Amino acid sequence: MLTGEPLLPEVPPEVLRREIRSRSMLRDTLQSAAQRFGFSAAAQELLTSMLQHDRHARPTVREALNHSFNLASYEKERMPLFKEALKMRERLVDSCRAVMQEPILKRVARLAMAHSCDICVEELATERLVFRMLDRHGYGELSISVWENDFLFRGVSVPEDLDAIFESMDLNRDGYISYVAFLAFMLPFTLRSNENLCKVAFSILDRGKDGYIDCADLAVVFGHNEDSEMCRRILQEVSEEVCGRLSWRSFVQLMGGEFLS
């Protein structure tokens, strides 16, 4: 939940079904995780209550959301970050419109970076809070109606192009914007120009590992034929080379940074 790791891996089901045998494992695992990841006392208390064996004693969703650990994160007036998030939310549509105008390859690289970076880094604190503001139900994804309701809630007119913006962010075409897809659009310059992230994204796209992103690479990434016209056009957007390929240096410049190494 908080660590991204299984709570009790490879524990036989018959053991888990018996509280008298499993509660000590639960307690030890939580204590170990708390020490390793530095959980606060409130976080430990919430996890302990939610992960106890007796399902009747576990808190309801409402009780869990009203726990001090969660309530502390909503002390809006005393959080400078909250004011920053409000401003970002007001600029959200304009920011998304700007990303929509970027070359396709840059948007693909943004997604690769969003998948590769640690989503808990401090540089994404504001973006995480904005997503939480929109995702009022805590499902971890946004629908078009949820986004529309946010405008209505704030007394702001719903943008006429909201449908087009939403579709550009709905990468899976399932009617929802995932957290990672949201981060890909909102990825700050400090991360887009991060050398390690640039190298990871470039490596993902450079399937031939020859130091260039070419049509053959994109064909593999997108599942197209090697002579794909779409892949050729995608590269033409960003490459000035006659052979239609993108070097590491040009890739870094595309992502908005200076040449790194």
From TrEMBL:
Pfam families linked to this entry: EF-hand_5
InterPro entries: EF-hand-dom_pair (IPR011992), EF_hand_dom (IPR002048), Kinase-like_dom_sf (IPR011009)
Regions that span the bilayer: none
Domain spans labelled EF-hand: 157-192, 193-228
PROSITE patterns linked: EF_HAND_2 (PS50222)
SMART domains, alphabetized: EFh
GO molecular function: calcium ion binding
Protein name in the entry: EF-hand domain-containing protein
Organism encoding this protein: Zooxanthella nutricula
